[in-house]
């Protein structure tokens, strides 16, 4: 990578490549939590190079779990809370800025008897968490929020087979509770769930597999990460993803494959992988993003490259991500003079796309948000190039993003 004045240099150029993409951190972190509660040894293979995953594993090792590195994966050999030591000292955990890492970890810790101090970083410290904490307090946990963010002491004692969890802002709270209580015969029900429903289905399916006694899991490719690769190939030439052989129905962002087909890009799925090629006579889209909010930045990019007006709906949850992604996406569109408008009442973004490229170089300074950094790279490469900051943030989900696409 070339650095100049702390900016990564992006050259405007075509794209034609056969590559492999990372596996799913969403699947991996769910499987890791469940494996940490299983009374028997569990192996998980094809783990992604993601800080969200490595941070979770580091935290779990600190609370006593025996996690062994094996070829292309890990083996978790004991279970929580049985692995807790009998000491009285507070255990400090640093889960990073990942939503799944922090939110999945907290209910698991509440099953134990020791006191834990949880200190996430970045925007995670400001993202919604109160509904989850209130549920834990109702179940008997002691929770206090302080300068270091959160101190937690269990154990919780569910007194019912059914538990309702508010899912109006995020499904991760319901998922976190369902994972933690998976072996306690408690059925968790998300209330007012309007976003990311397929990830909830992923959670339920994984819990079912663990309860059936499955002890070996292979993490599938990550369709969220793959969307950036597919978008670049669709706009600038072609790409074949060599390790994708099916569309994962439990990953909501896999809908991007269908969207590209509907927009008239050339898309094929075979024994050699998933291939996308540039095409003519492209069509705009009118799409409800409620089930795939993480896909919105990539969708905004691809819509900006197609002549005509595209409509993206149900976007308000983007304000609660690692950054205000709705605001950041509009900033990018404005930077490239792509006419756009957001109607807060209708929760709809209109994008007046155009196939003509911008030739002038630009420098982009996105927030420390992996998805906004990656989509900024797409805009730079598809137009006049330029400098890009905050590139380290891609390690959250797609550590070799720049090397792979160069």
Descriptive notes:
This protein has 406 residues and is α/β, with parallel strands linked by helices. The strands form 6 sheets. A 4-stranded mixed sheet has the order 1-2-22-21, covered by helices on one side. A 4-stranded mixed sheet has the order 3-14-16-15, with helices on one face. A 4-stranded mixed sheet has the order 5-6-4-13, covered by helices on one side. Strand 15 and strand 16 form a beta hairpin. The longest helix is centred in the middle third of the chain and has 15 residues. The N terminus is likely disordered.
Describe this protein with a few key phrases.
single chain, 406 residues, alpha/beta, 32% helix, disordered N terminus
Show the helix and strand layout.
Elements: E1 3-4, E2 7-10, E3 15-19, H1 25-37, E4 42-45, H2 51-62, E5 67-70, E6 73-76, E7 91-93, H3 99-109, E8 115-118, H4 130-138, E9 142-144, E10 150-153, E11 162-166, H5 172-180, E12 187-191, H6 197-211, E13 216-218, H7 223-236, E14 237-241, H8 255-262, E15 266-270, E16 273-277, E17 286-288, H9 296-304, E18 308-313, H10 325-335, E19 340-343, E20 348-353, E21 362-364, H11 370-382, E22 386-388, H12 401-405
Parallel strand pairs: 3-14, 4-13, 7-8, 11-12, 17-18, 21-22
Antiparallel strand pairs: 1-2, 2-22, 4-6, 5-6, 8-10, 9-10, 14-16, 15-16, 18-20, 19-20
């Amino acid at each position: 990578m070339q650095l100049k004045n702390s900016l990564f240099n992006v050259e405007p150029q075509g794209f034609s490549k056969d590559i492999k993409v990372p596996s799913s951190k969403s699947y991996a972190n769910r499987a890791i939590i469940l494996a940490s509660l299983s009374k028997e040894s569990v192996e998980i293979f094809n783990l992604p190079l993601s800080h969200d995953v490595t941070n979770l594993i580091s935290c779990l090792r600190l609370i006593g779990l025996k996690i062994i590195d094996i070829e292309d994966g890990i083996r978790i050999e004991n279970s929580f809370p049985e692995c807790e030591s009998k000491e009285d000292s507070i255990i400090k955990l640093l889960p990073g800025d990942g939503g799944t890492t922090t939110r999945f970890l907290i209910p698991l810790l509440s099953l134990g008897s020791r006191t834990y101090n949880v200190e996430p970083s970045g925007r995670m410290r400001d993202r919604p968490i109160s509904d989850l904490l209130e549920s834990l307090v109702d179940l008997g946990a002691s929770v206090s929020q302080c300068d270091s963010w959160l101190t937690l002491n269990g154990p919780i004692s569910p007194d019912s087979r059914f538990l309702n969890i508010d899912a109006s802002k995020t499904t991760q709270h319901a998922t976190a509770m369902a994972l933690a209580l998976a072996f306690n015969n408690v059925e968790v029900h998300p209330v007012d769930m309007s976003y990311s429903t397929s990830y909830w289905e992923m959670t339920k399916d994984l819990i079912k597999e663990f309860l059936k006694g499955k002890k070996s899991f292979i993490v599938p490719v990550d369709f969220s990460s793959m969307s950036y690769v597919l978008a670049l190939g669709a706009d600038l030439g072609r790409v074949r993803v060599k390790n994708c052989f099916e569309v994962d129905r439990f990953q909501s962002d896999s809908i991007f494959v269908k969207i590209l087909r509907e927009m008239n890009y050339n898309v094929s799925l075979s024994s050699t992988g998933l291939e996308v090629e540039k095409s003519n006579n492209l069509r705009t889209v009118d799409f409800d993003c409620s089930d795939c909010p993480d896909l919105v930045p990539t969708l905004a990019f691809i819509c900006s490259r197609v002549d005509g007006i595209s409509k993206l709906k149900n976007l308000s949850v983007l304000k609660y991500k690692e950054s205000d992604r709705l605001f950041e996406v509009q900033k990018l569109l404005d930077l490239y003079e792509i006419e756009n408008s957001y109607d807060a009442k209708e929760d709809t973004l209109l994008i007046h796309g155009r196939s003509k490229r911008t030739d002038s170089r630009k420098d982009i300074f996105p927030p420390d948000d992996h998805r906004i950094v990656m989509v900024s790279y797409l805009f730079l490469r598809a137009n006049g190039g330029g400098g890009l900051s905050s590139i380290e943030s891609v390690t959250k989900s797609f550590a070799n993003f720049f090397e792979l696409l160069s």
